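Provenance

Sequences were taken from public entries as deposited. Structures were produced by running a predictor on each sequence independently, with no templates supplied. The record for Low conductance mechanosensitive channel YnaI from Methanosphaera cuniculi is shown for reference.
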Amino acid sequence: MAAIDFNDIEVILRLICSIVIPIILTMIIKHLLIKFQKKTGSITKDNISTIMKIIRIIAVIVIIIGCLDVLGVNIESLFVSLGLVTLALTLAAKELLSNLIAGLNIVIEKPFTTGDMIGVNNYKGIVQKIGFKNVELLAKDETIIVPNIIFSQNSYINYTKNGKFMQKIKFSLQNNQYLDENLKIIDDIIKNCDDLDKKYKYSINVRSFDDNGVNITVKVPIKDIDNRKVIVSKILVEIYDKIKIDPTKD
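Predicted structure for Low conductance mechanosensitive channel YnaI:
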């Protein structure tokens, strides 16, 4: 590496440009994203935050490489001389980069957003946060951390993609003597429940008959996904008050 003369204006200007230009470009991209978000509403503030984290990482890498180049460091020779260290760092960064790319794809394609109910790899929960490395799901009062790459490698379900969430409720009628009358009672309870989204249809189906009685499955469109357990309990309690039932697990 040749000696660097820091009194050389050209060297100083090149160093300044290597640092300032990526920073300015990062600021411009952020400004454009915010402007696009306000104009279209097609991306959220969380999406912008995720994209900017990725861009900042790229900007830092560009700044480091640019400064080393100005200082006369042969980047290619440097990587070769580092040998195993470079290989180890590359392998370590592979998973991070895979998650970054997968996270960017989630932000751009928007297969799901914050507040959606999704299922992947036997996990099911409400999306709390979409980060640049992982997605946080809330399920049964606990947070599940799912790496972004999982969504690129596996199939997943968005239960609220169409703007609704259908909650399944299973229970058994212990007395099937008045089945039609009991189904009418259940229908009235569901129809008059204020916690359900009236824009969408609900369903009441007889699954089977056994020693427990008549097994019923009800699917209802829940307004507030976060309170779905409370809503299900309210519906079951009201049905129980009028009909003797045996709630069963989904």
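The chain has three domains: 9-82, 117-158, 165-248.
The beta strands are 117-120, 123-130, 134-139, 142-147, 156-158, 165-173, 203-210, 213-222, 245-248.
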